[in-house]
């Protein structure tokens, strides 16, 4: 019995001894430099307990049992495992660099590749750049950071779309690049920027793996994922800001306006509208009335990430609320997102992954663009008029002198009622399965399902006899459901033959389907003439005779694709790649459904050659080239068949009966639009890898352009409601140019580091053919004038077509000596614009119109600067566009409209001006479209400037956080330009007619303060 007691005591003592724990601490350093490494993850192997090193590389891990293993891990370094003993608790750990991890991996579509082995023109924007830029929409992060990419705004209103052009405008249809989010087709504008890990842009034949959808370039988005063996991390990012207009136009004040109008009436032989000018003063500045100050924008983002040996996770949510600088809440935008990303290693062979994103946004808008816009009315409204009358009601603008379109912009804002709600669930589910050594099967199911509802209300209004008067209230509503899904399955085989030959082969299949429906209806006689009761269910009024108040659509389009790619390298220095994709689409008729899209790329790592030697100047040099064919099918559905989508009225038994008719004229010969892309490039790393240079020369030729609504005879019924001209393959456009980027990064000391980047893109655009059509017109200018933009052989797509000017007639003798201009609508007089007789036939008429401007910039460039000094960080991003022209079309044609103050330099007598014509109410040709209205819209913009402070990690840890950064910044700080309008970089997005300024809603300047906290 005594021996049993001794055995029990021995076992207890043994258990106590094995259970004894220690607090270990120490420092983690680099093996080569001996410098401390902050942020190293330290975790007990196969256990949740962990910590991270502070700014000085120090750490403490409490309660570690003797005999357990602690794993030290950090990106770019090999994992280090340490077995805890009771003899040493103060450690000095050295991590070795892992050259494989340090060799950056680039996503290239259906796979990835080491950056040094990439043979195509590929650019990457990383998460650090995104954190600095703080874009409201992720597209904004591409402007000025990536060569060959130009992002234009269609409007500065919150939530407005942005247009991305990769290496120019190649088609007069849809030029948007294909967007792939974690492997599925997605939409950039719906993403929370803080969810994005990186943006990869494929600009050349490397994108041929996407075949029929890659002609406009491909943008690959990688979202943030959890990391294995990483301690759970909570990140909170928030900023609040205040917005204001970045620009106001210099218009005439009340006194200047009255004096000028008197002069205009006198020159036209009319009595003066302002016999007494004294006392008018400055009057009303209508831009001050519509532009609000200190308009709020708020953004919050919360995420949870982490992982174990087998599972990784990332969960996030965001909220953005932005009001407009015009109308505030009347043009507001609200966006909420939620995302969950999971990865699981089920076994050594099978890995599962999923990423699901939910987006909701609400947007309200005001009338924009053209004569009906709030901004245009504010620019042209007479400064002698007051916003409100004596009764406190909105002032009614007179018909006489101001036409029937110009109305009080404040009344227009107050009486705009609309609402748009959008909900979307998107994501993918997939797996990787290692079938046998070197061969992995990957399958992904991607999906997008969206529902939107819109409502607009037309209130009974009296603007004084204007076209905007509403005599009967109505409400229009819509419900739209759009969906798509894609199923990808592909196998990747990786094999190394001997010591020098490496092969990666990929073969796969993609199924893509998009389908949806929409319903639209209008109800009349809204109860109480109120937005509160604006709902079709409450309306009881019947539509007017001949009006069909409902409409709908349904569509179902599919695509089946097969693709293959082979990548080979010898010793990692001779690189070859070949791709082929076969696509078939229901958008094309029999005989044209299938398209084949091959491409080839090659590279030579010259710096690996033996003859190159050990250069201290050049660390890496690679020459690469690519050529391939890609496709485009961005057209409407069912263009090759005839459908009864038009409206018509028929006579039956002597009575008119509403019915249907053929819609778009069919074209059974429709086929793929093809892009032939050639690129040759050079990659260099210099001065101990501190300088990185990339240069590319490219030619992109787009053939068989899919041209929508090609002009046809009216006999075909194209003018009927719901009908339209056909879509045809009708043209060829070529973009050629040069890209160059250089980045310099250096850490000068422990306290100071800096990076500088510059990129430039030179571009030439030329139309090579229009398939027998002399030209294709587009855009609009003034009232009742011919389209001012064209697509024509030998000229840039969308060039401006009008009259050249040659100064101002100074006297009657000059008028008489010059060819007659009466064919343009009126005879010339001293003070009028003198047009050039370009064809020399002695008369000025339509045959003298010519090329007077190009909306496509000859060069775009970005300059970016970042530096860190101790706890402070500073960054500045700029963008420049050179050589792009813009048409000034925001000035009203009405006699009594206000003017910009440049008219003060008008012609008032011989020798007074040779650039600005006289003012008069008489008939002249001064408002005929000419280069007088075309301006150089080159500009340099400081897009973002930011200053941040990061709290010392030792102090942060004491309050329970791993990172605390406070920053302040300004977005859209200033634009340097000679252009008179609001935004020289804006466009309505149309390839033909996009560079016409109808009074763009200006991009706001945003002052912000924010913080980043990691727990």
Structure description:
By secondary structure, the chain is mainly beta. The chain is built from nine helices and 51 strands. The model is unreliable at about 5-20 (pLDDT under 50).
Shape: globular
Distance between the first and last residues' Cα: 56 Å
Fraction of residues in H or I helices: under 10%
Q: What is the count of helical runs?
A: 9
Short description:
This protein has 9 helices and 51 strands.
Which features would summarize this protein structure in a list?
1015 residues; mainly beta; 22-stranded antiparallel β-barrel; five-stranded mixed sheet; 9 helices; 51 strands; 47% strand
Write the layout of secondary structure elements.
Layout: H1 2-19, E1 21-30, E2 41-44, E3 50-52, E4 58-65, E5 69-73, E6 80-83, E7 90-95, H2 99-102, E8 105-107, E9 112-114, E10 122-126, H3 127-133, E11 149-153, E12 162-166, E13 178-181, E14 184-185, E15 196-202, E16 218-223, E17 230-245, H4 254-267, H5 286-290, E18 295-307, E19 311-324, E20 328-345, E21 350-363, H6 374-380, H7 409-414, E22 417-436, E23 439-458, E24 474-497, E25 501-524, E26 550-570, E27 574-585, E28 594-605, E29 618-632, E30 646-652, E31 655-661, E32 673-686, E33 691-703, E34 706-707, E35 728-729, E36 732-747, E37 752-769, E38 776-778, E39 789-791, E40 799-802, E41 805-808, H8 812-817, E42 833-835, E43 850-853, E44 859-869, E45 872-882, E46 885-888, E47 934-936, E48 939-950, H9 953-958, E49 963-977, E50 996-997, E51 1004-1014
Parallel strand pairs: 1-7, 13-16, 46-50
Antiparallel strand pairs: 1-4, 2-3, 2-5, 5-6, 8-9, 10-15, 11-12, 13-14, 15-16, 17-18, 17-51, 18-19, 19-20, 20-21, 21-22, 22-23, 23-24, 24-25, 25-26, 26-27, 27-28, 28-29, 29-32, 30-31, 32-33, 33-36, 34-35, 36-37, 37-44, 38-39, 39-40, 40-43, 41-42, 44-45, 45-48, 46-47, 48-49, 49-51
């Amino acid at each position: 019995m005594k021996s049993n007691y001794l055995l029990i005591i021995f076992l207890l003592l043994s258990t106590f001894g094995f259970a004894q724990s220690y607090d270990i601490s120490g420092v983690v350093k680099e093996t080569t430099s001996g410098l401390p490494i902050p942020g190293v993850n330290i975790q007990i192997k196969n256990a949740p307990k962990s910590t991270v090193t502070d700014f000085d590389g120090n750490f403490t891990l409490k309660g570690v049992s003797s005999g357990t293993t602690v794993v030290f891990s950090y990106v770019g370094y090999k994992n280090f495992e340490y077995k805890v003993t009771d003899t040493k608790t103060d450690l000095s750990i050295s991590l070795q660099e892992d050259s494989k991890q340090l060799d950056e991996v680039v996503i290239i579509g259906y796979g990835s590749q080491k950056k040094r082995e990439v043979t195509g023109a590929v650019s990457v924007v990383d998460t650090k750049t995104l954190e600095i830029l703080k874009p409201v929409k992720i597209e904004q992060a591409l402007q000025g950071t990536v060569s060959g990419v130009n992002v234009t705004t269609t409007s500065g209103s919150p939530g407005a779309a942005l247009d991305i052009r990769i290496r120019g405008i190649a088609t007069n249809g849809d030029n948007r690049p294909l967007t792939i989010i974690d492997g599925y087709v997605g939409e950039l504008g719906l993403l929370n920027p803080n969810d994005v890990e990186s943006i990869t842009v494929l600009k050349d034949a490397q994108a041929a793996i996407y075949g029929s959808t890659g002609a406009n370039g491909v943008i690959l988005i990688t979202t943030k994922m959890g990391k294995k063996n990483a301690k759970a991390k909570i990140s909170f990012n928030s900023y609040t800001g205040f917005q204001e207009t970045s620009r106001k136009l210099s218009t005439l004040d009340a006194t200047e306006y009255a004096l000028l109008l008197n002069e205009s009436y006198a020159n036209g032989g009319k009595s003066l509208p302002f016999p007494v000018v004294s006392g008018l003063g400055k009057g009303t500045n209508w831009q001050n009335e519509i532009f609000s100050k200190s308009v709020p924008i708020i953004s919050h983002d919360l995420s949870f990430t982490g992982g174990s040996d087998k599972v990784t996770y990332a969960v996030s949510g965001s909220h953005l609320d932005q009001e407009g600088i015009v109308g505030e809440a009347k043009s507001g935008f609200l966006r909420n997102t939620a995302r969950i990303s999971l990865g699981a290693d089920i076994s050594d062979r099978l890995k599962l992954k999923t990423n699901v994103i939910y987006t909701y946004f609400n947007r309200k808008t005001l009338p924009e663009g053209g004569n009906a816009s709030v901004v245009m009315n504010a620019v042209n409204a007479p400064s002698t008029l007051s916003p409100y009358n004596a009764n406190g009601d909105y002032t009614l603008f007179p018909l006489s002198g101001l036409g029937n379109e110009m109305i009080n912009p404040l009344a227009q804002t107050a009486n705009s009622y609309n609402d748009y709600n959008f909900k979307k669930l998107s994501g993918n589910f997939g797996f990787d399965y290692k079938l046998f050594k070197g061969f992995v099967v990957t399958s992904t199911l991607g999906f997008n399902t969206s529902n939107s509802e819109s409502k607009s209300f037309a209130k009974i209004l009296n603007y004084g006899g204007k076209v905007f008067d509403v005599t009967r209230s109505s409400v229009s509503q819509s419900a739209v459901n759009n969906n798509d899904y894609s199923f990808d399955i592909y196998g990747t085989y990786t094999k190394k033959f001997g010591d020098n030959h490496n092969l990666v082969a990929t073969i796969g299949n993609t199924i893509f389907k998009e389908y949806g429906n929409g319903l639209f209806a209008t109800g009349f006689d809204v109860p109480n003439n109120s937005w509160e009761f604006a709902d079709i269910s409450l309306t009881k009024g019947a539509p007017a005779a001949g009006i069909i108040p409902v409409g709908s659509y349904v569509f179902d389009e599919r695509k089946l694709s097969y693709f293959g790619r082979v990548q080979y390298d010898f010793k990692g220095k001779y690189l070859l790649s070949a791709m082929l994709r076969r696509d078939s689409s229901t958008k094309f008729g029999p005989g044209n459904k299938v398209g084949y899209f091959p491409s080839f790329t090659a590279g030579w790592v010259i710096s690996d050659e033996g003859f190159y030697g050990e250069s201290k100047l050049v660390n890496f040099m690679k020459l690469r080239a690519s050529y391939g064919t890609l496709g485009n099918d961005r057209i409407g559905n069912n263009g090759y068949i005839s459908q009864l989508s038009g409206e018509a009225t028929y006579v039956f038994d002597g009575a008119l009966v509403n019915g249907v008719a053929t819609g778009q004229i069919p074209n059974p010969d429709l086929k793929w639009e093809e892009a032939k892309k050639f690129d040759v490039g050079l990659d260099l790393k210099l001065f101990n890898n501190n300088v990185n240079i990339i240069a590319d020369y490219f030619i992109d030729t787009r053939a068989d352009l899919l041209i929508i609504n090609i002009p046809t005879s009216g006999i075909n019924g194209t003018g009927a409601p719901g009908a339209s001209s056909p879509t045809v393959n009708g043209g060829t456009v070529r973009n050629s140019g040069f890209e160059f980027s250089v980045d310099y990064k250096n850490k000068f000391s422990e306290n100071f580091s800096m990076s500088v980047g510059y990129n430039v893109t030179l571009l030439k655009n030329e139309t090579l053919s229009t398939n027998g059509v002399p030209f294709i017109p587009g855009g609009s200018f003034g009232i009742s004038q011919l389209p001012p933009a064209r697509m024509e052989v030998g000229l840039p797509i969308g060039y401006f077509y009008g009259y050249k000017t040659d100064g101002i007639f100074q006297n009657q003798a000059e008028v008489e000596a010059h060819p007659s201009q009466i064919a343009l609508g009126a005879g010339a007089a001293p003070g009028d614009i003198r047009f050039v007789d370009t064809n020399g036939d002695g008369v000025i008429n339509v045959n003298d119109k010519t090329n007077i401007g190009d909306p496509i910039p000859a060069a775009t460039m970005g300059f970016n600067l970042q530096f860190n000094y101790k706890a402070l960080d500073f960054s500045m991003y700029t963008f420049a566009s050179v050589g792009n022209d813009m048409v000034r079309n925001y000035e009203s044609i009405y006699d009594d409209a206000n003017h910009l103050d440049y008219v003060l330099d008008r012609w008032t007598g011989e020798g007074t001006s040779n650039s600005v014509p006289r003012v008069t109410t008489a008939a002249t040709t001064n408002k005929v479209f000419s280069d007088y209205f075309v301006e150089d819209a080159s500009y340099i913009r400081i897009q973002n400037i930011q200053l941040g402070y990061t709290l010392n990690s030792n102090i942060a840890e004491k309050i329970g956080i791993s990172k605390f950064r406070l920053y302040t910044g300004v977005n859209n700080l200033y634009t340097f330009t000679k252009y008179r309008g609001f935004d020289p970089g804006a466009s309505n997005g149309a390839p033909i007619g996009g560079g016409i300024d109808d009074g763009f809603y200006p991009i706001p300047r945003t002052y912000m303060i924010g913080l980043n906290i990691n727990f």
